[in-house]
Specification:
- The chain is mainly alpha-helical.
- It is 76% helix and 5% strand.
- A hairpin with a 4-residue loop joins strand 1 and strand 2.
- The longest helix has 112 residues.
């Protein structure tokens, strides 16, 4: 501590200028008045001087005490700086690494969950498309069946109509009357 203090004192420079003189008495400021908190000369401290009876000490002693206080303060600041540097290097660095790890893990979870959701959506999409396709096929088959049924029905109706037109054109009145019951019974089943 003494070695650091003397080095720090060299950094701070020498004490007051040796040629500093009291403005009132023109003597060197070799004393310090603790009551007025300023350097004074021997005449100020002596009998009849303005600082007589005040707390007075040699300026060198006061300056040395100030230097020691400044050195102590600098050492405390240096310790605080070292503590902050250590905190930044160890704690904040660790927190930063944990933040990076946490964010990375969170990203992985998000990616996995979205992948699962995507997979589920694709499966559901496939199932629904197959369901729609199956319904389309059933509807198409039903339409084909109905077309075949109605085509057959139209064919039968055309056959009956052709038969009736043929009877109308080839039978005379007497033959028509004789076949009336047969005509209507034969064709009644086809029109119902």
């Amino acid at each position: 501590m003494a070695a650091e203090g003397s080095g720090l004192q060299r950094e701070l420079g020498p004490g007051p200028k040796p040629d500093a003189l009291c403005p009132e008495h023109g003597q060197g400021l070799g004393w310090f008045c603790g009551s007025e908190r300023r350097p004074v000369c021997a005449a100020c401290v002596g009998p009849g001087g303005r600082c007589r009876g005040h707390r007075v000490r040699r300026a060198k002693e006061h300056a040395e005490e100030l230097r020691n206080k400044i050195v102590d303060q600098c050492e405390r600041l240096q310790l605080q700086s070292a503590g902050i540097t250590k905190y930044v290097a160890e704690v904040l660095s660790g927190k930063n690494q944990r933040a990076v790890s946490t964010a990375s893990a969170a990203r992985e979870v998000v990616i996995q969950r979205l992948s699962l959701v995507r997979s589920l959506c694709e499966s559901e999409e496939q199932r629904l498309l197959e369901q729609v396709h199956g319904e389309e096929e059933r509807t198409h088959q039903s339409i084909l069946t109905q077309r075949a049924h109605w085509a057959e029905a139209l064919q039968k109706l055309n056959t009956i109509r052709s038969s009736l037109v043929d009877m109308l054109t080839h039978l005379d009145d007497h033959q028509l009357i004789q076949k009336e019951q047969e005509i209507f019974e034969r064709h009644r089943g086809c029109t119902n």
